[in-house]
Amino acid sequence: MSALGGLLAEIAACRECEASLPCGPRPVLRAAEGSRILLAGQAPGRKVHESGIPWDDASGKRLREWLGVEADVFYDPECFAIVPMGFCYPGTGRNGDLPPRPECSRLWHPRLLPLLERVELVLAVGSYAQAYHLPSRKRTLTETVAAWREYYPRVIPLPHPSPRNQMWLARNRWFETELLPALRQRVAEVLGR
Q1: Alpha-carbon torsion angle 186, 141, 76, 104, nearest 10
Q2: Do 85 and 133 contact (CB within 8 A), yes or no?
Q3: Which residues fall within 8 angstroms of residue 179, CB to CB, at 6 or more apart?
Q4: pLDDT digits (tens, 9 = 90+) for 85-114
Q5: Is residue 29 classed as helix, strand or coil in its secondary structure?
Q6: What's the start-to-end Cα distance of the chain, in Å?
Q7: Which residue, among 31, 24, 28, 36, has the nearest Cα to 7 in the 3D structure?
Q8: How far apart are CA 46 and CA 58, in angstroms?
Q9: Fewer CB within 10 Å: C terminus or N terminus of the chain?
């Protein structure tokens, strides 16, 4: 078994924060040694926790549209490593899902990310992923995403593609007209399409 395969098996068996997880542990991530794009989101939602398939919800459908890729490419770990900041569903709070548990980024990310040597592009989806992957991020998510050219071509910060973000998308039309075309072009370039 490869170093990455062994580590993924360790992560699958992780019970570090079991007592804090309302639905129990079920780490949801995908990666391969040949992964070209690292998709770093927040944490699985309830539907993803139940299916075990990352981004298996309305947010994932919108994200694939943003990227300009079909599901077969998106779920090919040789194309996309899907490594959220928290691997298990953290539960729901008053305003939606709780933040990702901090244990994953402390325990697993420092061991996992160096094994993804072929990654050419990091998609930092949401403020938690941006905080980890962009130490020089701006004060707010909107400012960070608006400054995407500063991080391009290695990292592209994105808002969460949740249907609840309709207001953000409506207020920030530049996202669709400026960033999305560049995002699709960069994804196609990295994947050799």
Answers
A1: 140
A2: no
A3: 145, 148, 156, 158
A4: 999 999 998 888 899 999 999 999 999 999
A5: coil
A6: 31
A7: 31
A8: 12
A9: N
